[in-house]
Amino acid sequence: MTADMVPESTPNQDARHANQMWGGRFAAGPSAVMARINVSIDVDKRLYSQDIGASKAHAAMLAKQGILNAADAEAIIKGLDQILGEIEAESFVFERSLEDIHMNVESRLTDLIGPAAGRLHTARSRNDQVATDFRLWVRDAIDRHDRQFRALQQALIEQAERHAATVMPGYTHLQIAQPVTFGHHLLAYVEMIGRDRSRLADCRARLNENPLGSAALAGTSFPIDRFVTSAALGFDRPTANSLDAVSDRDFAIEFQAGAAIAAMHLSRLAEELVIWTTDAFRFVRLSDAFTTGSSIMPQKRNPDAAELVRAKAGGMIGHLVGLLMMMKGLPLAYGKDMQEDKAPTFEVSDTLELCLAAMTGMISDLTVDPAAMRSATERGYITATDLADWLVRRLGLPFRQAHHVTGSIVKRAEDKGCGLAELTLAEMQAVLPEITMEVFAVLSVDRAVASRTSYGGTAPEQVMTQVNAARARFL
Ligand code: ARG
User: Fold this and answer.
1) Interval between CA 289 and ligand 1 midpoint (Å)
2) Which residues pair with 368 in a beta bridge?
3) Contact status, residue 65 vs residue 224, Cβ threshold 8 Å
4) Do residues 92 and 86 lie in contact, with contact meaning Cβ atoms separated by under 8 Å?
5) Which of 100, 106, 323, 342 maximizes ligand 1 atoms within 8 Å of its Cβ, making it the mutation to test the pocket?
6) Of 157, 161, 164, 214, which residue is 20 to 30 A from 70 by alpha carbon distance?
7) E strands within 357-457?
8) Could you report the per-residue pLDDT of 222-231, keeping only the tens digit for each?
9) Are 392 and 406 in contact (CB under 8 A)?
10) 169 forms bridges with which residues in the sheet?
11) d(CA 470, CA 191)
12) How far is CA 48 from CA 26, 102, 107, in A?
C-alpha cells in the first residue's frame, strides 16, 4: 500500500472508527500508522477465490452438522457467490479499514444478507482461515507452474530432437573438454526441470492437508466435521494438530525453495544463452522477439530477456531466505509476523511464471548455427581423450600412461600450431613408436561423439533414445 492512501494523523479517538469486525472492546480506532502497518488487503485480496471457496465449504459443513440452520446456510452461500461475482467483475470495493480479505468478504456478506452473516465465523478463526486459503493458493500456483515447466520441457525436447546430431564443444571450467551434441546439452535441462517439477509435486502432496476447523489455535467445542470440509476443498485429510495447523508455513517455504532451485536452473540456462549469443561463440541466435537493440550501437542484439531471467533468480532466492528468517524465531501458535508471508510468496510465483514464459519463448524461437559450433570443436584438442582411450584399447597402455603420452602429443601439436589430426604419423610415433595409422579415425569429432553410446551419453542415437524417453516421462 502507499502512504498517501491513509491520512497521517494522531490516534483517532472516535469509537465509530474502531474496526467493525473486532472493535467491540476498543474505545478508539487505530492510529493511522497502526492502520498502515496492520493492513494487508492490498496483498491478500489475491486470496479471494480461495477465501470464498473455503467459507462456502465451512458454511455447508456447519449446516450438515446442525450448527447452522439451512436457511442461513443457503443465504450465506448465495451471498458468497454474489461477492465472488462482484470481485471478478471488479465492482467490489475493498476497504483498507477492514484490514484483510477475510473481513472484507464477511463485511460485504453482512451488507448483503444481514446479521446471519455473523454466523459464518462460528467454529473458525482468521488463523485457520488464512492458513487454509494460503495453502489452497499455493496449491493452485504449483499446478499452474507445473503446466509451464512442462511447456518449457517440450520446447527443449523439440530442439534436442532437431539437434540430436549437431556437434558442439562440451565444456568443463568453461574450457573446451569433449565434443557433445547440442541435443544432449539441452536434454540436461530437461532433467533439471523434471526434478524441479517433482520437488514442487512433493511440496503439493505434503501441503494438501486441511487446517480449517483448527480455529484460533486449540480447535473448537462445536461438533464440526473436518473431513467434510477437507473433501469439499480437495484436501487429502484434515491437519492432525490445531496448533501446528495455524502456525505452519513450511508449505510456503518449501514452495519458495522449489521455486528458487528452479530459478537457479533457469538462470544457468540463461547464462549459457548469453554466452552462446556472444560474438566469440555465435552458437545460437535469439529471435527478435526476445532481444533488444542498442540506442547508440546499431549492430547490437542484446539478450535482455536471458539476462533478466539470470538476474531474477537472485531476488527469488532472497525471498526464500527472508521468509525463513521471518519464521525462525516464532513461538506457537499464530503471530502477526506471519502476515508477511504472502507478499514474497506471490512475488516469487509471479516472477517464476514470467521467467518460465520468457525462457520457453527464447528456447522455442532460437536458431542454431551448426557451422559455428563445429568450428569451435576444431580448437582445443577436443579429441585428446579419444586418443588416450585408443592407446588403452589398442595398445593396452594403463590409462595414466596413455594420458601422459597424449599430453606429449598435444604439446607437439601446440608447438606446430595445428590440430591433433594434422600431425603426421611420424610425429606421433616420435612420442610412442607403437602408434599406427588407425589412430586417425578416432580423432574426428563425429567419431568421438558417435562412440559415446553409454546410457545417457552424447551419441546421437543415444540422444534420440533419451528424447523419446523424455517425451514419455514428462509430456
Ligand atoms: N491477515 C491475517 C494474516 O494474513 C489474517 C489472520 C489474522 N489473525 C489474527 N489473529 N489477527 O495473517
Assistant:
1) 43
2) 284
3) yes
4) yes
5) 100
6) 214
7) 367-368
8) 999 999 999 9
9) no
10) 179
11) 8
12) 28, 8, 14
